[in-house]
Fold each of these.
Amino acid sequence: MEKRVRVRFAPSPTGGLHMGGVRTALFNYLFAKRHKGDFILRIEDTDQTRFVEGAEEYIINALKWCGIPPNEGVGFGGGRHAPYRQSERKELGIYKKYADRLIESGHAYYAFDTSEELDEMRKRLEAAKVVAPQYNAVTRQNMRNSLTLPEDEVKRLLESGNPYVVRLKVPRNEEIRFHDIIRGWVVVNSAQVDDKVLLKSDGMPTYHLAHIVDDIEMEISHAVRGEEWLPSAPAHILIYKYLGLENEMPKLAHLPLILNPDGHGKISKREARFPVFPLSWKDPREATPYLGYKEAGYYPEAFVNILALLGWNPGNNEEIFSVDELAERFDFERVHKSGAKFDPEKAKWFNQQYLRKKSDEELANAFEPILKDKGFSAEKPFLMAFCRLVKEKVQFVHEFWDQGKYVFIAPDSYDEKVLSKKWKENSKEVFTSLMNAFSSLEKWEVAAITSCFHEAEAAKGKIDMQVLRVLITGVAGGPQLFDMLELIGKAAVVDRMNKALAKLQ
Ligand code: GLU
């Protein structure tokens, strides 16, 4: 029988969750949803030196904002596998049992080396031109561990409370084979794998041991994680094997990296010229906060849609997908092996697509506080009409102001380029007569404004629409002219034209 799908997102609370992390969470979420399985949030906080205050809360809030909440785990309610924080699980003695099992079966050992001794070893190996010095089947023979020291000395050291770590005993020359859903079969020689620390001297398990124990105990069916974990996968395979858990281990899927727009290197939060965090993030150890997608004006649906297409494709040209639609289509077959280039301009385009789908009322509600901030207010129907009109021109709600502020403020300067090119000798007269025709219009609405304009043209000859726009708004471009005139209102239009014509010769 196939295992029930249970996947986990297992971040370490070492900082704000960046977009790569959210993408990992998203693919886990989609896979669980597609297979009606469980999506678990496990906090991997065994490295106390890297713990960052506020990171866990941030992760929880980010998943909520993205609309991809786990159904089990820290911050989302317990299941029968609680607790879901590794530091709490350690207190229950969960990991030590497994480390002991490995020691008893001869697949792990105690190592008593001090950090000075480890440094010395590294220097010695570097001096001997060893490219990647590591604690392994060869070098361990010259170190202080339970494989080299006499048994009674080991016993004495352990009993006297001497600090020690537990290391995995990796064979010297053995082929390690494993299957990755995205990458296929991977073969690595154990000579490339170091004797990883499994339990640290403070009794905390390392990630390598802890995640394996938890994946087994939490009945995880698929471990879906970033490509950066691929190099440690061979060591993990050995641990499963030595614990006799090869048949129970989750299937592995290592997701491709998200690359910079130029295709070089992983996105870096310090260099990126676009947000890399879902929500604004202030690291307590750094002075400057990072702007989030949310605060930059992105809709969570757009953000999720963008991330889904970084490394996965639906197999056709479709691009716009809701989370539910993604979950219906998502599978690992269509996840690429190679890194996915992030395109910040395309990201904005996605937001625009979602913005266009919003109702006028939603947009008006979102724009209202921005308008208020600028010192203006308007009735809801007016704001809705404004948003309907300007919507085509913006990618974000906050851009409504820049794109349409002239609806609220009469211009005090006029686009010189347009006027110098198009202002004719008789322009003043032509526009004055149009203004008079406007002012005697009874019904101020698009159809009437349009025919009034055409009648004026019939009488006076072609009237340049762009000049008319500049007289009323000051700027050369914008949404549909006559719709905009209707919105600005007759009195204001006439008044603005009057003032402009008085200024222009
Ligand atoms: N704690 C690891 C991380 O921070 C999790 C890796 C995994 O999913 O196995 O990315």
Amino acid sequence: MNWEELEEKCAKCTLCGLSETRTNTVFGCGDRKSRIMFVGEAPGEHEDLEGVPFVGRAGKLLDDYFKALEIDREKVYICNILKCRPPKNRDPLPAEEDACMDYLRWQVRLINPKYIVCLGRIAAQRLIGPDFKMTVDHGKWFAKGPFYVCGVFHPSYLLRNPAGKKEEMLTDLKMIKKDTGI
Ligand code: URA
């Protein structure tokens, strides 16, 4: 499958019930030749309306980190585990993740990145392993087949815990920038 076919298939997807409540699918954005992918959980309200990942409040915080560290958002690829918004932003159901994973697998195959950064627990537990614990394992690279995968705090979590983990996120993203050369 090429990008056009994959994107079209995703836009028409009815593999799970989220297709009935979505406004738009949120496929992904950024550089399809990047050596690094950032993978979040699922679209929120703004993403559902615009069809673009990380454009709401969490996305603005992610952009702030990228700006502070001089990481160019256009030069990385950003997408989510789920391509459709769960109602009221509830956690994805395992069956919804299962139904959606082939889109991400195809994206990874087409991009062929060296590094994958999971934004939040949901993506990290799916892509690194069910035992991944964010408080313990954030900012560590795990070798997964041909990729190095790491998990960092989800920007939405950082918005809810302003006093807590923001410094750790900065440290993790600095490390990621240094190790990946982005
Ligand atoms: N949260 C996510 O996990 N992904 C988005 O695209 C927006 C918010």
Amino acid sequence: MAAQSFRPARPARLVVLVSGSGTNLQALLDAVAPGREARPGDADPPYEIVAVGADRRGITGPERAERAGIPTFVCRVQDHATREEWDRALTEATAAYAPDLIVSAGFMKILGRRFLERFGGRVVNTHPALLPSFPGAHGVRDALAYGAKVTGCTVHFVDDGVDTGPVIAQRAVEVLDEDDESALHERIKEVERGLLVEVVGRLARDGYSLEGPEMRRVRLGS
Ligand code: GAR
């Protein structure tokens, strides 16, 4: 099968989805904040965050967006009669901002069929383990319980499985004898934030293609 190529608009319009503290969102915000130090040869930010969506209230992620003057929306499963209706509502709320790319940055919900039909191939997720090991909601806890000596983080495209989409980039983090889940997760997140900013910047700046027999090999640049 021929390669599929994507070249987002410049700057790419990003919608970021969050469920928690939003430190990955903050890293994405800081990287394109007015007055940031421009990278050599790249004076223009590669992306702009046009909205931040959440699946719950009372979390700090959306507050970070509001402080930066970025619109937010909340779409809670419990406010909808069925999961399909929630999927439809989240798809519409996101589509209203006409995103080129969507980043799931600690968004703890499986995205629905309609959402992926609309935005498939343009939804990026960050996961705190080296996929395909330790997918799901407890990637850090599961790696620790298994006794892995090296874990890390994965930035990948979202498909209709649980953390099964094409891998874009990964970074390793050593597991220390004294680690508990929270200490290990914090060290992973330090690495993860840098990786996510770098990957989203490159996707937005250079475009990307999916190649190979299974269309799983991601090549940055077009
Ligand atoms: C991140 O470590 C992210 O990989 C993880 O939630 C954290 C969010 O942190 N996501 C998952 O576990 C998804 N399965 P943040 O809210 O501080 O950005």
